[in-house]
Specification:
single chain; binds 4'-deoxy-4'-aminopyridoxal-5'-phosphate; Aspartate Aminotransferase, domain 2; three-stranded antiparallel sheet; 353 residues; 2 domains; alpha/beta
Length: 353
């Protein structure tokens, strides 16, 4: 067999469909409907392509300083990577041991966590969400664990956990790293926990440029944490690839994160469209969770999730669905532009007759 035992045993993560050429309303991968900041686009145009001859700065200091400025932390508290998936992957390797107490995360959450565990042979346990899809932190307090990963807001449920609850986990498991995956936190009514990393040396906050910074194609994610955690992440990164963030992405990403005004305008617009869409779906009889993210998690009143998704697909609208038994009738619907969502709601009403 031309495969390692490791490769033979893997079940990879499957990302949402990226249609090639076909014109669709794309509400399936939680991308931002608006372009990157005009300042980011200007930075791209002004980038000196001659610089591509050289390797990038392996520690991306200028970019990290810009992120630190935006997050209210110090440069040494920031780690950057090729998308937050890579940052998470390195964090699992850096902070969780193989063959130890299980790493805990909810049974319904970002499915990549399980994939990282299988890649690194990390023992894990999936902790059931309550029937209403909320996290009960009591389930995480007493257990022996190697670490905890909470997506906040959670995906695909869109529901936020109170920051105070995450802090209680951090304070309970003081010799374990707690990862708060804040991929969607910029759309939440709660502030990021990034600043709390100054207080807690075992809290790692992971964020991404893919959603709120309209930069999924640029592949840029980061972690905020105590300097010791960041140094550990860097040492793992340097055993894998010294240059995970290329110089073009670093330059454009820096301009994107420095444009706070544009970021606030786009996130506010997406939040307003989300509330409008959630109301309309509720009126159509959908069961809709309380979303703090740039997507909505909703169950159509009839037809079932699979059939509803197929009917939307036939009308040129892509949404995501997961085959997990508890949520297979739910659709995860990314918030697109106002126009996209008007069309989406209209098509849903037509499907329901
Ligand atoms: N965390 C969560 C909860 C996500 O949904 C995603 C997007 N699939 C990511 C992390 C990774 O995003 P990216 O690699 O684009 O930064």
């Amino acid at each position: 067999m031309l495969k390692s035992k490791l490769a033979a045993g893997l079940t990879p993560y499957v990302p949402g469909e990226q249609p090639k050429g076909e014109k669709v309303i794309k509400l399936n991968t939680n991308e931002n409907p608006y372009p990157p900041s005009p300042k980011a686009i200007a930075a791209l145009r002004e980038f000196d392509a001659g610089r591509l001859r050289l390797y990038p700065d392996p520690t991306a200091d200028v970019l990290r300083a810009a992120i630190a400025g935006a997050e209210g932390v110090k440069t040494e508290n920031v780690f950057v990577g090729n998308g937050s998936d890579e940052v998470l992957s390195l964090a699992f390797a850096a902070f969780f041991d193989a063959d130890s107490d299980p790493v805990l995360f909810p049974d319904i959450t970002y499915s990549f966590y399980k994939v990282f565990c299988s890649l690194y042979n990390i023992n894990y346990a999936e902790v059931p969400l309550r029937p209403d899809f909320t996290v009960d932190i009591a389930d995480y307090m007493e257990r022996k664990t190697s670490g905890i990963v909470i997506a906040n807001p959670n995906a695909p449920t869109a529901i936020a956990l109170d920051n105070g609850d995450i802090c209680r986990l951090v304070e309970t498991h003081t010799n374990r790293v707690i990862i708060a995956d804040e991929a969607y936190a910029d759309f939440s009514s709660q502030p990021s926990l990034a600043a709390m990393t100054a207080k807690y040396n075992n809290l790692l906050v992971v964020k991404t440029f893919s959603k709120s910074r309209s930069f999924a194609g640029g592949r840029l994610g980061y972690a905020i944490g105590n300097e010791e955690l960041i140094t550990t992440l860097r040492s793992v990164k340097d055993c894998f690839n010294s240059y995970t963030v290329n110089s073009l992405t670093a330059a454009v990403g820096r301009a994107a994160i420095e444009d706070r005004e544009y970021f606030e305008e786009c996130t506010a617009r997406i939040i307003a469209t989300r509330e409008w869409t959630a109301d309309r779906l509720s009126q159509l009889g959908f069961t809709v969770t309380k979303s703090d993210a740039n997507f909505i998690f909703a169950k159509p009143p009839t037809l079932g999730g699979k059939e509803f998704q197929a009917r939307l697909r036939a009308r040129g609208i892509l949404v995501r669905r997961f085959d997990h038994p508890r949520i297979s009738d739910y659709l995860r619907i990314t918030i697109g532009s106002e126009e996209d969502m008007r069309e989406f709601v209209k098509v849903c009403a037509e499907i329901l007759g």
